[in-house]
Amino acid sequence: MNIVTLWRALAGIGILGLVILIVVWNSWLTPVQEYPRSVEILFFAGPLLFFIRGILHARRYTMVVITMVSFAYVLMGVWYILSVDEKIYGYLLLTFSFLMFLGSLMHVWVMDKREKLEHPERFKKKKKR
């Protein structure tokens, strides 16, 4: 297995795990909620749906953006860890968002290193006169 494919798969597992976890937890597993379930699912899982195609097709821009988006889900995971009723949900959110972050970050890093090795002329510094 190629190392780039491994990192992309890790990012894919992270984002799909987050979407599935949010839908399953908010629709079946939670006790009574303050907000309607559909609004909570749409608010938390909706933004992730825009990035699934980009991760599956290994688009660099999507991988860069998803590293920043994953921080919101890390914060949400920490928030739920600190609540009494939903600690398991918080730990799972933290785990999947960390997988998404690590996979996308390392995918971009490896692809940049590979591009520098294949095209060194693009990255040469110009001499000052």
Give the termini distance in whole angstroms: 47 Å
- Give the uncertain stretches in residue-range form: none
Briefly note the structural class of the backbone.
Answer: mainly alpha
Q: Helical element count? A: 5
The residue fraction in helices comes out at: over 70%
What is the percentage of strand-forming residues? under 5%
Largest sheet: none
Shape: elongated
- Count of extended strands: 0
Overall pLDDT confidence: 90
Helix/strand order, N-terminal first: HHHHH
Number of domains: 1
Indicate the radius of gyration in whole angstroms: 18 Å
Structure report:
It is built from 5 helices and no strands. The protein has helices at 3-29, 37-49, 52-56, 60-82, 87-118. Helix 4 (60-82) packs antiparallel against helix 5 (87-118). It is elongated. The model has no long low-confidence stretch (mean pLDDT 90).
